[in-house]
Amino acid sequence: MSTATPRFHPPQQSRSQETLGRILDAAERVLDEKSFGDATLAEIMDRAGVTVGAFYRRFPDKDALLHHLDERFFNELRDHADEVLDPRRWEGEPLGRIIPHVTSIAVPLYRMRRGLLRTLFIRARTDAKIQASAREINNRYIERLLALAEGRRTEISHPAPEVAIALGFRMLVGALRETVVFGEVWPDVPPLEDGALAHELARLYLSYLGVVPPVHIAGHDTIQR
Predict the structure, then answer these.
(1) 83 Cβ neighbours under 8 A, 6+ residues apart
(2) CATH 1.10.357.10 boundaries in the chain
(3) Which of 99, 115, 189, 217 could form a disulfide with 31 if both were Cys (CB 3.0 to 4.6 A apart)?
């Protein structure tokens, strides 16, 4: 059983919640342009329309701001897992339909939040709070995928389905990270639009599971020759 990560308590007053939201939104916009280390509190607060003094009345330091960003993103990913992988949503549907839907959502999400994800992936190597948060959300997705696979064992030809579900998800996240978040270190040949990338990632995961996908998964063609 996993141990839940301690969560911060957001401000209760609506005005304070609005201010916190502006600060977090501004921080994400800055992280789209530069690393967390290069981003200054002054420019973040300027974009948020908040004074640096007001920031220190809410946060003890800059790292606490990053932890709030991680917390907000954690909650979004948790809600995505609960909604997208809800077993009631997929009654009667095969894994060959479920996995492409997951990748079709994941690719644009990673693209849209690339700056934040970049920072969180890097800091997760050394920051215990962000490590625990990442471990918890990864476990949540894997548990839900395992639950969906439970009634679909006949679709999976891999000899160890539980291992394949968990390791395949790790491969999927790794491919997303390297392709979308840190893609500049890889040759982009051939270039892929988000829809085609989601299609290929679904094929990768399904092939590893030994699942025969539908002819046109996710409604996209494969790599254009």
Answers:
(1) 89
(2) 63-219
(3) 115
Cis amide linkage into residue 161, ω under 30° from 0: no
For residue 147 the two structure tokens come to 């639950």
**Stated pTM of the model:** 0.86
What pLDDT does 2 receive?
41
In the prediction, which pLDDT does 214 show? 67
Domain span(s) for CATH 1.10.10.60 in the chain: 10-59
Q: What is the pLDDT of residue 8?
A: 46
Q: Exposed, middle or buried: residue 44 (CB in 10 Å: 0-12, 13-18, 19+)?
A: buried
| CATH class entry, domain 10-59 | mainly alpha
**pLDDT per 10-residue tile (average), the chain, 225 residues:** 44 71 95 95 95 90 94 96 96 95 97 97 96 97 97 96 98 96 85 92 96 62 41
Kindly state the tokens that stand for 49: 């329309």
pLDDT for the residue numbered 15: 67
State phi, psi for 193 to the nearest 5 degrees: -75, 165
Please count the other Cβ atoms lying within 10 Å of the Cβ belonging to residue 85.
19
Q: If 0-12 CB within 10 Å is exposed, 13-18 middle and 19+ buried, where does residue 125 land?
A: exposed
Alpha carbons 108 and 197: distance in angstroms, whole number: 10
